[in-house]
Design brief:
Layout: H1 26-30, H2 42-53, E1 62-64, E2 70-74, E3 80-85, H3 98-111, H4 126-139, E4 143-147, H5 150-161, E5 167-171, H6 176-185, E6 189-192, H7 197-210, E7 216-221, H8 233-243, E8 246-250, H9 264-268, E9 277-281, E10 291-295, H10 300-307, H11 309-312, H12 319-332, H13 335-357, E11 369-375, H14 377-389, E12 392-393, E13 396-397, E14 407-412, H15 419-451
Parallel strand pairs: 3-12, 5-6, 5-7, 7-8, 8-9
Antiparallel strand pairs: 1-2, 2-3, 4-10, 9-10, 11-14, 13-14
Helix pairs in contact: 3-12, 4-12, 5-6, 7-8, 13-15, 14-15
This protein binds pyridoxal-5'-phosphate.
Pyridoxal-5'-phosphate binds next to helix 5.
């Protein structure tokens, strides 16, 4: 049995002088100094290509064919990887659902393929407006506004509401769209420790005390995708009400796929309708690009249409995407959706228990994301490379997306995975782990010998 916690090798323990592909990170290469904006990026490209040539680069894979539990892709070097797929976000396995494909075909046949305009002008379609009404009704808010991407919804709602003299109090691990929106809106961004109710409350109280007349937005998520964990949303609602702050919760990863009715942690914690602004993405469960912002405040909708870059100054979601999400939402709300969520959760629990039996540590609570700890960069890149070579599709998350030496596979489960897929994957991963540890041990021993 393997235990990555127990056997973790740190870079100090082996000689990486000749192994540049196992060292360094994106951040280090992206911050190389220099006056020439393009030339200074060469370092990043050289580093990434070196990793690719050593087959320890899992980034930028392209799929062929449908997104399913078994899939085919190739990497940047054109190498084929075919096999069990834990690298796609399609939690309820809706991306090739026949009814959804038919809805997309019907929309294309009746409306063409393009929105042909911003939603502030004439890019809205009857389908987009129907989707906005359906989302609002399902969530129990007065209104919803649909965006062409989830990223735009998160960034845009913060940037549109928060002014430079206002304040944003935000979980330090909030998604890049939220963090970048906050930083673009105001210099007054106060990050609190991940999930810390005390951290949120004390920062919020201090900001309100020091700035009694300014606006404050509090931003968090209902399911964090790197750690698969959830804050105390009820507490966040309470302290926001006490201090006159507006609460925004991003439910990209749990809406539609978790909870009996698919309403995720917001419903489980009884805060739907109490969170001021709910935003999310359609790209994890609803089989399409796109996102939304929902609220009951009567002034938000037109403000977003007119004052929000990723809504106002970009073309609206296409009629095909709106039709896809509408049909996906219908399925999510149906008995079929309920069945799919049950199958998804069974798979999640089975994968987590099988990984534990193989000695892997998974983070957080059961959700469609199963973060599987590997540890330092060198080991994690070798394990990931071996896993891909053996025919399992995975994504590796490294610093700066997570903190140093906490690299992890971010496994994403689908309703259509079978126990056989999960068993096969665990066998591949276990063998990949053993091979990676052996090769690092060999390097370590060679290093020790050279020093004597
Ligand atoms: C928490 C969170 N919010 C927003 C987004 C952006 O959504 P999309 O990829 O649909 O633009 C993502 C997706 O990566 C996410 O994980």
């Amino acid at each position: 049995m393997m235990n990555f916690e127990g056997t973790r090798l740190t870079p100090k323990m082996y000689d990486l002088t000749d192994a540049l592909h196992l060292q360094g990170d994106v951040f280090q290469h992206a911050t190389v100094a220099g006056q020439h904006l393009l030339d200074r990026l060469q370092s990043l490209t050289d580093w990434a290509n070196n990793r690719l040539s050593h087959e320890v680069d899992a980034n930028c894979k392209a799929t062929h064919g449908r997104i399913q539990p078994r899939a085919s892709a190739h990497d940047r070097a054109g190498r084929q990887i075919s096999g069990v797929n834990f690298a796609s976000q399609d939690y309820l396995s809706l991306s090739s659902h026949p009814q959804i494909v038919a809805a997309a075909q019907h929309a294309a046949a009746t409306r063409g393929v393009h929105s042909a305009g911003s939603s502030a002008l004439m890019g809205l379609t009857d389908l987009t407006l129907e989707l906005e009404r359906e989302m609002a009704a399902w969530l129990g808010y007065n209104d919803a506004t649909v965006f062409p991407t989830g990223w735009g919804a998160g960034y845009g709602v913060i940037k549109a509401l928060v002014r430079p003299t206002d304040h944003v109090v935000i979980d330090m691990l909030a998604h890049a769209c939220l963090m970048e929106g906050a930083r673009a809106a105001t210099p007054n961004v106060h990050a609190f420790a991940h999930l810390s109710a005390r951290g949120l409350e004390s920062r919020l109280a201090r900001v309100r005390r020091d700035h009694p007349d300014d606006g404050i937005m509090v931003v968090t998520e209902s399911l964090f995708s790197m750690d698969s964990d959830t804050p105390d949303l009820r507490h966040a609602v309470r302290v926001c009400q006490e201090h006159g702050a507006t609460l925004v919760v991003d439910c990209a990863h749990d809406l539609g796929c978790m909870g009996a009715d698919g309403l995720g942690h917001l419903a489980a914690q009884g805060v739907l309708g109490e969170v001021d602004i709910v935003m999310g993405s359609f790209s994890k469960t609803f089989a399409s690009n796109g996102g939304f912002v929902a609220s009951s405040h009567p002034a938000l909708k037109l403000a977003l249409r007119f004052l929000c870059g990723p809504q106002t100054y970009t073309n609206a979601m296409s009629p095909i995407q709106a039709a896809v999400v509408l049909k996906a939402l219908e399925i999510v709300r149906s008995d079929e959706g309920r069945d799919r969520r049950v199958r998804l959760m069974d798979n999640i629990n089975y994968l987590r228990s099988q990984l534990a039996d193989c000695g892997f540590v998974t983070l957080g609570a059961p959700s469609p994301i199963v973060p599987t700890m590997l540890g330092d960069s060198a080991l994690s890149r070798l394990v990931c490379g071996e896993t891909l070579r053996a025919g399992a599709l995975v994504n590796l998350v490294e610093y700066p997306a997570v903190s140093r030496n906490t690299s992890r596979l971010r496994l994403q489960v689908m309703a259509d995975h079978s126990e056989a897929d999960i068993d096969e994957f665990c066998t591949i991963l276990t063998a990949a782990g053993a091979t990676a540890i052996d090769s690092l041990r060999a390097a370590q021993e060679a290093n020790a010998e050279a020093m004597t």
